[in-house]
Amino acid sequence: RLILAFESSCDETSVAVVRNGNEILSNVVSSQIKSHQRFGGVVPEIASRHHVEQITYVIEQALTEADKTIEEMDAIAVTEGPGLVGALLIGVSAAKALAFTHDKPLIGVHHIEGHILANQLIEPLNYPLIALVVSGGHTELVYMKNNHSFEIIGETRDDAAGEAYDKVGRTMGLTYPGGAKIDQLAAEGEDTYNFPRAMLHEDNLDFSFSGLKSAFINTIHNKEQRNEPIDKANFAASFQAAVVDVLVGKTMRALEKYPVKQLLMAGGVAANQGLRTGLTVALTERFPDVKLIIPPLSLCGDNAAMIGAAADMLFEQGEFRGMDMNARPGFMFEQH
Ligand code: ATP
Ligand code: MG
Ligand code: FE
Predict the structure, then answer these.
(1) Which residues contact ligand 1 via a Cβ below 6 A?
(2) Euclidean distance between CA atoms 271 and 179, whole angstroms
(3) ipTM, 2 decimals?
């Protein structure tokens, strides 16, 4: 089964061809990061315009790289939400237009289900499993008893991990998005500031990053006021150590409560080197029988292959959308 998949929820225009939900034939990603950097974040109007300009080229390139035609596709899939409404609409409209003109079934995918099922493109998933979702807008522990059951067993009560990274990055004067740069700086520094590990020892699976973010910003501002030099590497390392301790700690707590076969990492922050190492070490020590799947960097950030992987599961279940499908900017990640 071949699926042509679209992703345009934020600032990546991406189209992929995925076979049987587990094999990437092509996964073209056109990033607009450079156009947004001087504004310090994604500007919705600029994002929509870029998607419009890029999408036809990206579709052509995805089909060419896969060496397939639209006629050979069994379905067209697209991110329905959540995301920026204007950005989502470009992908949804393109997918609907192709599905209509070529008479193909249409599938709507939740962006976060895509991030999780990206792992299926690396190796077969064994259930039950837990996914640690860490992205720009989400921080969640998700329990899956099978490939179409998503149970949120823990989540952030305020900021998402990626959001905290980006805000802290901005405070340090790093270009948007700051996550990957803080990760690099952290490797050169040490945890000298010992920032708070919020909720780490509370008996629940929830997270909170806004206190950490405030502690970080206040500490930097106090130093600036005293005209003391800012040791960026130590600030980055201290911030990252606090984030990783909490993410790893809560994930281990989740594994105590829910016996599973696999632990998956999902979302942009899954690219974080400190987190990858932290989870690997903790798992080897505490749950050596649980298999950790770490997606390659290309499948951590937004991409259409992950949407194709999730769409294959929906195809299997006969979950198709009609021509009345619309962008769902506030699409909640519901349990089902
Ligand atoms: P969502 O998926 O929740 O809708 P999104 O699509 O904007 O949000 P992603 O594209 O999955 O988020 O991830 C982007 C986030 O990942 C950004 O906040 C970015 O800073 C962060 N990120 C990317 N690489 C790293 C890294 N190495 N370390 C920490 N954060 C990172
Ligand atoms: Mg992005
Ligand atoms: Fe995302």
Answers:
(1) 10, 111, 115, 135-138, 162, 165-166, 177-180, 183, 267-269, 271-272, 301-302
(2) 9
(3) 0.98
